[in-house]
Design a protein that fits this description.
The chain is of the alpha+beta class. Helices cover 24% and strands 40% of the residues. The N and C termini lie close together (8 Å).
């Protein structure tokens, strides 16, 4: 790999305006793995005063992107799904941690667990990516 995984992840973050708007922090990273965190702000809430599901999905999706691209092959999402298990409120800190299930030449599969500051599971996300062959 021409660039190491930390440089790849950092470069992706620098170019990802939405992840920066969400104020995502990279807590840990390894090839095929990341652990991210962010704090929920008022402008991330829906009409019921709880965190919009799209924010939680986006955190998990960013984790998928950083983990799946960290080995140097451009990987794009084919399919993602999420199950929400607990409401998220303003001031909560969310932590998304990836698990690489399949690291194939053309397909990658990842499970992302999203927990709050109390380690309560708030969402379970699964993503499949296509490896484009580009580096």
């Amino acid at each position: 790999m021409s660039k190491d995984y930390k440089n790849i992840i950092q470069s992706m973050m620098e170019k990802d305006a939405f992840s920066r708007w969400m104020e995502i922090e990279i807590l840990e990273s390894e090839p095929g793995y990341v652990k991210l965190s962010m704090e929920i702000r008022q402008e991330m809430c829906n009409g019921f005063g709880i965190c919009h599901g799209g924010i939680t999905f986006s955190l998990a999706d960013s984790a998928l992107a950083f983990a799946s691209n960290s080995r140097g092959s451009v990987s794009v999402a084919l399919e993602n799904n999420i199950n929400y298990t607990k409401k998220v409120e303003v001031g909560d800190t969310l932590i998304a941690e990836t698990e690489e299930i399949q690291n194939g030449r053309t397909i990658g599969v990842y499970k992302i667990k999203v927990v709050n500051q109390n380690d309560d599971l708030v969402a379970d996300f699964r993503g499949t990516v296509y490896r484009t062959g580009r580096h």
